[in-house]
Each structure stands twice: as structure tokens, then as C-alpha cells.
Design brief:
12 helices; mainly alpha
Length: 254
């Protein structure tokens, strides 16, 4: 399941250890003085991935690499690969934490992390960030999940949408929300869940699904549904009360 992700790591490490990369790294050292103490890309990566070390100094290195990428010279591809390799332990934790949501197609998670991370490196404002490494890792995690939730909300807004929800939305172990497998695809299970929720909580079904099934917090769910956070919080609490009341009535013996 991790083969594609680990293959990406191997390709990145390979790309920074070629003869061309070695020559380009010397160019980077001359342009960014914070890199001067490291005689090779391998030495730099070893320093960045070591749990010990001065975090401020490491952030200076990350800032230098981001500047190179954003300026597109010199050697932006090497700088980008070095960012990947240096932050790999944190990005790997993101991969492992989110893999259960992409259990049926882990390739999708690799692609989602790659797209999110690359976009963040290109747009991060170094002047407004205190911890560059932590921000890049946390924001990659956030953007991967935000995009996943956004796609769900767009599909769920269409009455035929749930039947088209891709399998990469599935948490590990099959279907969401404690539903027992019925032989349906996840899309079918999701449609069935929405169909059962809608008569009880109406339009708040998508809000409840976004929070309880898709792991959005209420701020994210509110933004995705075009609601204020206060409105989403009140609607979510009201929907839960109605669900509890419904379940209590359903479980009461005649």
C-alpha cells in the first residue's frame, strides 16, 4: 500500500544525489550562505531530518530553499527536492495519519500530498511565518483534507452526487460512521446514509456527514457549506439532538 509513497521518496533522494545535482548544490551554497556549512546534499538532508538541532537554524535553511523555489533560480528543482527530503519525516506522518481515508487507492493520497505541498511551497509568505517547517507540514495536511471535503460537498450538493463519490473517500475498514458492510460500494453506503439522515435532520445531513464522517472540524464544514461558524455550530448541535431523540424513540419497546 505504501509502495507508491516510498517510491516517491526514493525518486527524490535519487534526484539529489546525481552528479548534476552535486554541481548544482555547490551553486546553491554560493548563493545561500546558510547552506555553506554542508558539503553535500546528503549532509544537508541528514541535518534537517535529525530530530536534534537548532530549529531556528533549520528554519533559516528552509527559508533559503523556499526563496530559491519561488525565485525559480538557481536550481529550483533541486531546492524543491531538498525541501521534500528534509521535511519527509513530517510529511510521512501526514501520510500515515490520513491513509485510512484513502485505503482503497493510496496513490490518490500520494498525489494529494504532492499537489498540496508543491502549491504551498510556491505561495508561502516567509515574512509572515514563524516556523516554516511546521507550517508547511501542517498546512499540507490541512489542504489535503480540505480538498477531500470540498469535493464531497460539491458532489453531495447534487442529488446524484453520492453515487459518484470516489472510493478514495473511504476510511479504512470499509464504510463510515459505524455502518456495517452490506456489499455496497462506499458511494452506495454514503448515499444510503444520507437517505436515512435526511428525513430526520433535513438539510443538515451534509453538515453532519462532513463533521462525523469526513473528519472536518466545524469551522471547515461551515466554510464548505457557506455558513458562519456560529450558524454551523448551532445547526450541528440541533441535528445531533434530533438524531438522539429519533434513536431513543426507535429503541423504545412498544
Amino acid at each position: 500500500m505504501r509502495a507508491h509513497w516510498e517510491g516517491l521518496h526514493a525518486a527524490l533522494v535519487g534526484s539529489v544525489t546525481t552528479l548534476l545535482a552535486a554541481n548544482q548544490f555547490q551553486d546553491l551554497r554560493r548563493c545561500e550562505l546558510v547552506l555553506a556549512p554542508f558539503d553535500s546534499a546528503a549532509a544537508l538532508i541528514a541535518h534537517l531530518t535529525c530530530p536534534e538541532g537548532d530549529l531556528d537554524r533549520k528554519d533559516e535553511i528552509y527559508a533559503a530553499l523556499v526563496r530559491v523555489v519561488q525565485a525559480r533560480a538557481p536550481c529550483p528543482r533541486l531546492a524543491h527536492a531538498l525541501l521534500w527530503c528534509g521535511l519527509w519525516p513530517g510529511l510521512d506522518r501526514v501520510y500515515r495519519r490520513r491513509l485510512r481515508y484513502f485505503a482503497r487507492d493510496s496513490h490518490e493520497l500520494t498525489e494529494a500530498i504532492s499537489v498540496a505541498f508543491t502549491a504551498l511551497v510556491g505561495r508561502i509568505d516567509l515574512a509572515s511565518v514563524h516556523r516554516i517547517a511546521a507550517t508547511l507540514v501542517r498546512s499540507t495536511d490541512r489542504d489535503v483534507m480540505y480538498e477531500r471535503q470540498r469535493v464531497f460537498i460539491e458532489l453531495a450538493a447534487d442529488t446524484t452526487g453520492p453515487r459518484a463519490v470516489a472510493a478514495w473517500l473511504t476510511p479504512a475498514g470499509g464504510v463510515p460512521g459505524g455502518i456495517h458492510p452490506t456489499g455496497l460500494s462506499f458511494a452506495g453506503e454514503l448515499a444510503a446514509l444520507r437517505a436515512r439522515l435526511a428525513p430526520v435532520i433535513g438539510a443538515d445531513a451534509d453538515l453532519v456527514l462532513a463533521v462525523l464522517v469526513l473528519d472536518a472540524d466545524q469551522h471547515e464544514a461551515a466554510a464548505l457549506l457557506g455558513l458562519s461558524h456560529d450558524a454551523a455550530r448551532k445547526r450541528f448541535q440541533r441535528a445531533l439532538r434530533r438524531l438522539r431523540a429519533h434513536l431513543q424513540i426507535a429503541s423504545t419497546p412498544l
